[in-house]
Specification:
Elements lengths: L16 E6 L10 H17 L11 H9 L14 E4 L5 E5 L1 E5 L4 E5 L1 E5 L4 E9 L2 H8 L11 H6 L4 H16 L4 H6 L3 E9 L4 E6 L8 E4 L5 E4 L15 E2 L4 E5 L3 E4 L4 H17 L2 H18 L2 H5 L7
Antiparallel strand pairs: 1-3, 1-11, 2-3, 4-5, 6-7, 7-8, 8-9, 9-13, 10-11, 10-12, 13-14
Helix pairs in contact: 1-2, 3-5
Length: 319
Amino acid sequence: MSSDCHEPHLQGLAPCSFYLHSPARSKLSALFGSFKERDTEQRIRALLSSPGGSGGNGVTAGQAAAALAAPAALAAGAINDSPASYQLGGGAALVVCFGLCEVAGLGLHHLAPNVHYEPSTRTACVFSGHLQNLDELADRYTSEAFAEGPTSPSSILAARADPRQLAAETLLHMYLKERGGDLLVLLSELQGQFAFVLFDGEKRQVFAARDSSGGEPLFYCLDEDGAVSLSNGTPHMPTDDGPVQWQELPPGHFISGRSPKLQQFALTPAQLSIRESYERSMDEEMSPRALALLAGRQEDEMRRSLSPEQAADDSFFVF
């Protein structure tokens, strides 16, 4: 399901977009924690001050620090004229510029992006798109949050104005429950068109993925020291080493880990088509007719390798 908010913006943070920065982890993180926070603060200040961003009038260092020190609480249906900042664990930060996006062809609008934030652990999940099996997942992973009321999927969905917001919460709960296991199992449960970025405030690491259709945009930048930036656009982000060099997260791929790396978890439609063509060709090669032709060619080659007397003796070709 596409939206008119998915065009990348070259400068600033546009409506319906977000930016997350997670600084590098190291054994000396305890000594350089304040340095990492200053680095994140400088990036956020540069983002909000850049042309095209919602902070077009400029943001001072004190304002950026204050925004990160007191992260805004998300209110259901809230739309902000200026970005909301969330201070995450390990010197990381998330900036979200909320907006209304139109669902293509339907004349409907929804709030984007959708964020679920838990201040106690400084953990957040940003979600775009839709999950076809959201009702099933919500029933399995968010029933504890609705223990005092009905827990049927229809009741959970009815209690939320926007299923995308429920998807962000469900994804975070799925991760918290399964983070000690294989993330590929979690990704295999997601059915739909989506992109999401999740920051684990306790483990201080990111987990981001994009489904194989590529319908929802997601971009990333991995620095040499292990720092990672993620966004659903390509905002202009100056740093001491030059502007952030954004790369598109390929469809069917994810990034995770304390030293983030890119991995594939699903085949794209083009890759599926290639595999199906290969499997069809293999089936055709192994058909009875193909096997008979292969046996005939092998017999002809054997006859040519024998003397005339041997080739005339059919007993040589009894298998």
